[in-house]
Amino acid sequence: MIVAGVLSPIEDLLTEVLIWLHETGGLTWAWSIVALTVMVRILLVPLAIRQIHSMQSLQIHAPEMKAIQQRYKTDRQKQSEELMKFYKENKINPYASCLPIVLQIPIFIALFFVLRDFDDEVYPRFQETTLEWLNLVDITEPTKDGWGPLLLVVYVISQLTSTWLMSTSMQSAAQRWLIMLLPIFFIPFILGFPSGLMIYWLTTNLWSTGQGLITRRQMPRPVPPPKRSSRTPPKEAPAAAADGDSGGDGAAETSGPVRTGPPRRVKRKKGGGGRRR
To answer: How high is the pLDDT of residue 246?
Structure first.
């Protein structure tokens, strides 16, 4: 298979890491998958931070981007050019939010091939070991067998939680619902996956949930740009204009002489204020 050939280096690396975790760390094969998942997620932390920053920036500048789309709604090419210019000026990378997911796809597929051939290529070298996890599932058996559906329920809950944390920064309700429903759409495909792959995915979701809760508390939200409106006060006049020109005809010259001295007192008439007859 072409995909398997392209991913062979990643398969070999994952196999060696699993064997190292099993032999050196003394972990079972299932817990080695959990440790492998944690290692992968630690390597992706910088990209995850960039993902959060990018989504926050997109949320803050959403009204401005929407205004650009409305202004050039009849000219798609001009709209794309202006949006790319806006991204560059505000240092926004609209694709940064996809990087952690994109980089995990080849790892996920490569681990699928590793577990598919695990009984033939790896397990015969370690016959005394066990492939079970928590006495519930066998990492090489399909998720639909045994207690695999229990893992599937936990997966759906964790996936909904992690995607909900990510979808809170999206402006469109349709986008939020789409991301929330995707885990349910994947269930028919996941039933045939090895249980070890489900353990990897479940650990990833739990990590994403914890990471989302921590980073949203620790990382300050970027300050939105100031909004100008008709009520925004104009800029202050230059000091020269405030002081007046020394040689010009200023307003002080045209407003007449300035009276000095004590204020003039006005006498009031007696008898009811001068009522007319």
So the answer is: 47
Q: Show the DSSP H helices in 122-256 as ranges.
A: 148-167, 173-190, 195-218, 239-243, 251-254
pLDDT at 115: 94
Within 13 Å and on the Cβ side, how many CA atoms surround 131? 18
Rounded Cα distance, 45 and 95, in Å: 16
The CB-based long-range contact list for 257-264 (8 Å cut-off, 24+ gap) reads none
Q: Which two tokens stand for residue 196?
A: 């070890």
Q: Select from 117, 148, 129 the least CA-distant residue to 27.
A: 129
**DSSP reduced 3-state for 137:** strand
All residue ranges of the chain with pLDDT < 70 are: 1-4, 97, 165-176, 178-180, 183, 216, 218-277
Q: To which residue do tokens 């929330």 refer?
A: 180
Of the chain, the end-to-end C-alpha distance in Å amounts to 115
Q: What is the dihedral of CA 200, 205, 206, 211, to 10 degrees?
A: 120
Reported pTM: 0.71
Q: Which of 25, 19, 22, 39 is nearest to 107 (CA)?
A: 39
Q: What is the pLDDT of residues 182-231, one digit of tens each?
A: 767 778 888 889 999 999 989 998 898 888 788 767 665 555 555 544 45
Query: How far is it, in rounded angstroms, from Cα 129 to Cα 82?
Result: 60
